[in-house]
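Summarise this fold before class:
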Amino acid sequence: MALLSKREYAAQMRVSHTAINKAVTAGLIPLVAGKIDSAAPNAWEERRREVPTSGPVLNSKADAERRREQARADITEMEALRRKGELVSVKEVQEALSALITQVQATLLLIPCQLGFRLAVTNDVTACERILDAEIRAALTELSQWEPSGSDGSGGFEHNRGGIGQL
């Protein structure tokens, strides 16, 4: 039975003295007369063995070659998907969504300006509802035709209904 101080045990295990103190406090490493029996099994060492190492371990040149070939194949596949338009960057998606949200906001904010005079002269609630419904549906139809990349590379519309309020 080899009894070691906490510092000696930490050096043997190649960890910090603090890590050993925490393990002792947590009850993972038992003490014998204030020292650690390095020959006796303990829960802390068992836990350390269970933790996988981070990242792949390359044991040979063949492993390295296999990983390099797999990486090349992955890059080739992603490039093919990008060319087909099936893979886009997060930045492109964010830019497209930003353009769409801006267009939705502009379209919806124009409705009151375009309809104010027409609604002001209409005393019939049903007629007001029809006017509003038609304008909102026209705006939604326009927005549904939005394409994420216009001819200039920014978001835009393939088909424009001629402006809001044109019923």
In short: The chain is about 60% helix and 5% strand. The CA atoms of residues 13 and 45 lie 9 Å apart. Strands lie at 3-4, 36-37, 146-147, 156-157. Helices lie at 6-13, 17-25, 43-50, 61-83, 90-120, 125-144.
